[in-house]
């Protein structure tokens, strides 16, 4: 009886990873737009007055609020707030695998088509410094480059070393993180945006 009940519980929908329920969850939209009858991807330059990551290049999107019924709804809401795009005019093409940046941070990316002519006149200048597009053909031909960043754990001052083997002499394991870069004209795309972009382009290829 116990095993049957356990089997049913394990077969029910489970989180993407242990800790997803308490992680910082964000959703982004990869906007496909047509410019001169050619498909482009649209990017935002975050306003220089923003408190976090001013001037960085990103996709529209942001944190999933408790009032958002789904990650997709959050991506559409954020796109509306940042670019002034009516969610009813957005066509979702598909969903990418979530990007688990760490055990406490996950991003849900969605691919959609939107009207570029609507954006260039309506984006929120308090949050977005400017918008620009890159031809999909250019991205398919481009080879991004990578630099490694070493990430080392730093325990808190009150970490209970007395409870673990070797105590304060415990050998914490550093990890190497890949940072990808795309250079297009005067713009450099890197960080989480570059990781998601690279994955998307690899799918198309």
Automatic annotation (TrEMBL):
UniProt cross-references to Pfam families, sorted A to Z: NUDIX
InterPro entries xrefs: CoAse, NUDIX_hydrolase-like_dom_sf, NUDIX_hydrolase_dom
Keywords associated with the record: Hydrolase, Magnesium, Manganese, Metal-binding
Metal-binding listed as a keyword: yes
Start and end residues of each Nudix hydrolase domain: 23-159
Essential cofactor(s): Mn(2+); Mg(2+)
Name of this chain's protein: 8-oxo-dGTP pyrophosphatase MutT (NUDIX family)
């Amino acid at each position: 009886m116990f095993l049957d009940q356990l089997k049913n519980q394990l077969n029910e929908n489970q989180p993407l990873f242990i800790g997803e329920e308490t992680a910082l969850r964000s959703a982004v939209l990869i906007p496909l737009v047509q410019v001169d009858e050619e498909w482009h991807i649209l990017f935002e330059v975050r306003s220089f007055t923003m408190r976090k990551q001013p001037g960085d290049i990103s996709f529209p999107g942001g944190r999933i609020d408790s009032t958002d019924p789904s990650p997709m709804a959050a991506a559409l809401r954020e796109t509306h707030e940042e670019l002034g795009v009516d969610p009813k005019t957005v066509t979702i093409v598909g969903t990418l695998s979530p990007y688990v940046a760490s055990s406490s941070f996950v991003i849900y990316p969605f691919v959609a088509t939107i009207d570029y002519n609507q954006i260039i006149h309506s984006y929120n200048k308090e949050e977005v410094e400017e918008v620009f597009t890159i031809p999909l053909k250019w991205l398919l031909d481009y080879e991004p480059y990578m630099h490694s960043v070493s990430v080392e754990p730093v325990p808190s001052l009150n970490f209970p070393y007395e409870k673990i083997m070797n105590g304060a002499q415990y050998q914490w394991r550093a990890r190497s993180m890949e940072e990808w870069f795309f250079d297009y004209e005067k713009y450099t795309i890197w960080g989480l945006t570059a990781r998601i972009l690279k994955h998307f382009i690899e799918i198309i290829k």
